[in-house]
Amino acid sequence: MLLPVDSLKLRAMKFMTLAPLKFFILVRLVTALPPLNSLEAEENGKRLFLENCAECHQANGQGMADVYPALDNNEVVTGSGIDVALVLIIGRGEMPSFSGSMSAEDMAAVINYIRNAWSNSGKLIFAEAIESLQ
Q1: Which of 35, 78, 95, 96 is surrounded by the most beta carbons within 10 Å?
Q2: pTM value surpassing 0.85
Q3: Mean pLDDT by 10 residues, the chain (134 residues)
Q4: CATH for 38-133?
Q5: Contact of 57 with 71, CB cutoff 8 Å
């Protein structure tokens, strides 16, 4: 079926005006996806956790009763992710700040590791979110 010229123009105009929006949405979706090397990031997060956090919070995430909090089954850990990020950035109590010693990518890797290790299940947090908080 042939469409009148005005109808073809209208369709072309709709496509052209929506194209930038579709491109923007596609870019946002792609940048929101976890990195392709997520296994590498997970392994890096575990390594960083064992090197920097396990002494107090224990390798199994159970912490030390009345001294260092458990990270396993912890609502703060599995919450929005922002609270955990802020603790890593500014420190809390005896916990030091990692802002000067760890990159945003490494902080995100540690956070994602503890948010999904043991019995935890949390959404991924990205380095850009960490950078926006610093």
Answers
A1: 78
A2: no
A3: 54 57 49 61 94 97 96 93 89 92 94 96 90 86
A4: 1.10.760.10
A5: yes
